[in-house]
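Audit log entry. Action: structure prediction of a protein-small molecule complex. Ligand: fe (ii) ion. The ligand was supplied as SMILES and no pocket hint was given, so placement is left entirely to the predictor. Protonation state taken as written. Sequence taken verbatim from the request; no trimming, no tag removal. Recorded inputs:
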Amino acid sequence: MTQDIDFDSIPILDLAQAKADRPQFLSELQHALIHVGFFYIKGHQISADFLAKLTQTAVDFFDLPLDEKLSVDKIHSPTFLGYSTQGNELTKEKKDNREQYDFANELPELWSKGAPEYQRLTGPNLWPDLADFRPTILSFHEQALDLATELTHLVAEALDLPSDALDKYVLPGQQHRAKLIKYPARDQLDPDDGDQGVGAHRDTASLLTILYQATGHPGLQVQNHSGKWIDAPAIDGTFVVNIGTGLEYLVQGVAVATTHRVISPPPGSGPRYSVALFQGARLDRKLFPLEIPQHLLDKKPSAISDSGHQFAQVYAQNPGMYALLNRISSHRDVGIKHYPELAEQHGISAINSPLQ
Ligand SMILES: O=C(O)CCC(=O)C(=O)O
Ligand SMILES: [Fe+2]
């Protein structure tokens, strides 16, 4: 029988060790994948100077006058790329207290009439008129995606697979989504808004998330097997890496997509900023999971913390539809405007209607 090993902190892995002592690195990574679903990574190549510039770029963007931010609102595009105001996003039917700017690698529109609807997610970014914004965030995208690619090779090795085993699940030139996020502190919120920065969720359809906690605030929490919320504080020089439901599915649940949330920053501490890249998996067809060695399947945790997520059953059959339904459900205004029939078919109703 599987013995669940619970965690009360998030492991810190050092990429330098992947070169210096690979077996040790891979063994620590294997532990993190199977038992935690989260780890910090240090020893990466993304410079502190660049990250300071990225943080300033995020601050400058959210400081723009509201009408300028609204000119790049997600509502203008079926891609769900662009700005969303605070309170316009839902996690499990509750409002998240965060502002966001979603972006992706710069791609032309993919969809044409008759093609699958999920292809409408791919298209150009909505650019604000802000000096240096575009090169800075596209550079982040490129560097974070390189890191994610390097890590998926190590993940494959840590699961006793060839290092390129996951590569076939990522199409060259496909979309990888990313976002800048601002969480206002509690004193900057309406008391009725509560303290949900983002509600408990798992990252949907992606392989790995690369998360930069740009300010030193507490707030990110990860749920362990016994349901306890474990803090994942910002640690200088690191990214937080976590597993998406795409990777979990592709490795037969041997790497876990762990539930996490963000609590709004304490009163008086100012806004928390973070930047996330979600390394995508191909959405174009039904995917078949990898063959995982039995000794690792034997280590699979018997109980995953609150693993429920919407549309889970859709992923195995149609990952594109799954990704699209998750977008429609989190950003209802955009979803209902651009995909009215799908929203209706799946019972996704407007943001201010009674909770189901
Ligand atoms: O902002 C953070 O620290 C986490 C954000 C997150 O989990 C998400 O957007 O999926
Ligand atoms: Fe997340």
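Audit: result stored. The pocket of fe (ii) ion (ligand 2) is lined by residues 201, 203, 260 (CB under 6 Å). The two ends are 38 Å apart (CA to CA).
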